[in-house]
TrEMBL record:
<comment type="pathway">
    <text>tRNA modification; tRNA-queuosine biosynthesis.</text>
</comment>
<feature type="binding site">
    <location>
        <position position="87"/>
    </location>
    <ligand>
        <name>[4Fe-4S] cluster</name>
    </ligand>
</feature>
<keyword id="KW-1015">Disulfide bond</keyword>
<dbReference type="GO" id="GO:0046872">
    <property type="term" value="F:metal ion binding"/>
</dbReference>
<feature type="binding site">
    <location>
        <position position="10"/>
    </location>
    <ligand>
        <name>[4Fe-4S] cluster</name>
    </ligand>
</feature>
<keyword id="KW-0819">tRNA processing</keyword>
<keyword id="KW-0676">Redox-active center</keyword>
<keyword id="KW-0671">Queuosine biosynthesis</keyword>
<dbReference type="Pfam" id="PF02677">
    <property type="entry name" value="QueH"/>
</dbReference>
<feature type="binding site">
    <location>
        <position position="9"/>
    </location>
    <ligand>
        <name>[4Fe-4S] cluster</name>
    </ligand>
</feature>
<keyword id="KW-0479">Metal-binding</keyword>
<dbReference type="GO" id="GO:0051539">
    <property type="term" value="F:4 iron, 4 sulfur cluster binding"/>
</dbReference>
<feature type="binding site">
    <location>
        <position position="84"/>
    </location>
    <ligand>
        <name>[4Fe-4S] cluster</name>
    </ligand>
</feature>
<protein>
    <recommendedName>
        <fullName>Epoxyqueuosine reductase QueH</fullName>
        <ecNumber>1.17.99.6</ecNumber>
    </recommendedName>
</protein>
<comment type="similarity">
    <text>Belongs to the QueH family.</text>
</comment>
<dbReference type="GO" id="GO:0052693">
    <property type="term" value="F:epoxyqueuosine reductase activity"/>
</dbReference>
<feature type="disulfide bond" description="Redox-active">
    <location>
        <begin position="166"/>
        <end position="168"/>
    </location>
</feature>
Length: 183
C-alpha cells in the first residue's frame, strides 16, 4: 500500500504544509482555478517546490467543466458559502477516489493553510468523504502552525508566486478583469 496522498491547491499552501510535516504524493486537482493560464502558473509553482523537495506529483488533467457543472446556480454565493462547499467536496472526493483506486492509506489537503477558507468546513467534508470512500482523511489546520511565519518568509525568499484570489472566476478580485471564457 502507498502511504499518503496530499491534495495541494497552490504552492504557498504546500510550503506551510511541508514545513509542518506533511508528506506524500502531491495531487494537484483544482478544476476551479480560472483562467487556464492561472491554473498553469500555480501548477508550475507546485512543480518547482516538488522538485526542490523531491516530492512525487501525480499528473491530473485540468477539468474546469466539472467545476462549472457542479456550481451552476451558485455563482452569486459569497466566499465560504455553498459554492465553496461544493468546490471543496468535489476536490476532496476526487482525491479520495484516486487514493482508494491507487492503494493509498490516507489523504489530506493543504486547503486549511488559507485564511480564505473555513477550516471547519474543509475538515468536516474530508471526514464525510472518508466515510464514503473508505480511505482515512487526516484533518489539519495548517494556518495555525507555529511555522506559519517561517513559511511566509520562505515563500518570499524562494520567489513563490502568491495569488490574490482563491482560484475560481467568482472569487477573482475586482482588481482583475472578469473573464468571459470558461477555459
Amino acid at each position: 500500500m502507498k502511504c499518503h496522498l496530499l491534495h495541494v491547491c497552490c504552492a504557498p499552501d504546500l510550503v506551510i504544509a511541508y514545513l509542518s510535516g506533511a508528506r506524500g504524493d502531491v495531487f494537484f486537482y483544482n478544476p476551479n482555478i480560472h483562467p487556464k493560464a492561472e491554473y498553469e502558473k500555480r501548477y508550475n509553482e507546485v512543480l518547482k517546490l516538488a522538485n526542490m523537495w523531491n516530492l512525487n506529483v501525480i499528473d491530473v488533467p485540468y477539468d474546469p467543466e466539472n467545476f462549472f457543472k457542479l456550481t451552476k446556480g451558485f455563482e452569486n454565493e459569497p466566499e465560504k458559502g455553498k459554492r465553496c462547499e461544493i468546490c471543496i467536496r468535489m476536490r476532496l472526493e476526487i482525491t479520495a477516489k484516486f487514493a482508494k483506486e491507487n492503494g493509498y492509506r490516507s489523504f489530506s489537503t493543504t486547503l486549511t493553510s488559507s485564511p480564505r477558507k473555513s477550516v471547519e468546513m474543509i475538515n468536516k467534508i474530508g471526514l464525510e468523504v472518508m466515510k464514503n470512500f473508505g480511505v482515512e482523511f487526516l484533518p489539519n489546520v495548517y494556518r495555525k502552525s507555529p511555522l506559519y511565519n517561517d513559511a511566509q518568509r520562505l515563500i518570499k525568499q524562494l520567489g513563490i508566486y502568491r495569488q490574490n484570489y482563491c482560484g475560481c472566476v467568482y472569487s477573482m478580485s475586482s482588481k482583475q478583469p472578469q473573464l468571459i471564457t470558461m477555459r
